[in-house]
Amino acid sequence: MDEFSLIQNIKQPYYKQSSLIKGIGDDAAVFREINNDLVVAVDTFVEGVHFTKETMEPFHVGYRGLAANFSDMAAMGAIPIYYLVSITVPPDLEETSINEVFKGMETLAKQHHADLIGGDTVSGNSLVLSITVIGKVEKDKARFRSEAQAGDIVFVTGTLGDASAGLHLLQGKVNIENWDYFINRHRMPTPRVDFARELAGLKRVALNDTSDGIASEAHEIAEASKVSIILIDESIPVHPNFREFSPELQTKWKFFGGEDFELLGTVSQTDWSKVKKAATELHLKVSEIGYVTHKENDYVYVKEGGVLKPLIKAGYNHLK
Fold this sequence. Notes:
By secondary structure, this protein is α+β, with helices and mostly antiparallel strands. It has helices at 3-10, 58-75, 95-111, 162-170, 179-187, 193-198, 214-225, 247-256, 272-281; strands at 20-22, 30-31, 36-46, 79-89, 115-123, 128-138, 153-157, 205-209, 228-232, 263-267, 286-293, 300-304, 307-310. 31% of the residues lie in helices and 26% in strands.
């Protein structure tokens, strides 16, 4: 398959977004949005850094790559509408595998009615995906990390540490019951776009996706909002089978593991009931895991057994 055959192969037969004027086929795509603010995010996924052939099938590479971008949209309160893909293709990657990468993205994109509208294809030594997602949100309704205030409740969706546990299992380090659950959470995470949209009516909510672990994400909210955050260790939600791992791994993964692509947020106590209602309507677990206090060096603390201690800002960092 050459570059032009690939383009024709991945081109959608029709587009779902009515604001698109011109999709794949010219030097650039054209779309028009009048009543919304536009939100743009980009992520790059490199073989040997973000995934390996031993832990990911090509389908999962595409699915998980796009899920990471869609999770960024969720954290901004936005709906993903378009995505562009730049792919570096190594010489040993078969045509069927390339198709599976795009099939993985298409499978998730269909769930959110998002359209593939362009990208680029080059050859290289390893598989690299760079995905740009364009989303929309009502004017002045984008969510920012800087919206937390003292007295807010800190919450998180789903359960934490699952993706790290899945990677651990895929690497053959241990075998436990219900291991498929953790592996699927690593390979095919669910971006919480629908949940974030259910919160659109709230006047104020701070959101951050847990791509780098809640320790890092909580620090980002604290720093942006100039507040401190207290997390309650016993309240951090985990899957029942998570207890089968060592206490050391449990602590490491639930605070620093990342890649669960859940949403960490803060909201006023008055609006907490609305957050819980939104989660209930979507059959999604949401947990109160802490609270926001006045500024104390914009720091994050964890309370365990009644003892308060600083929680370091750690998690995945490419350039550390």
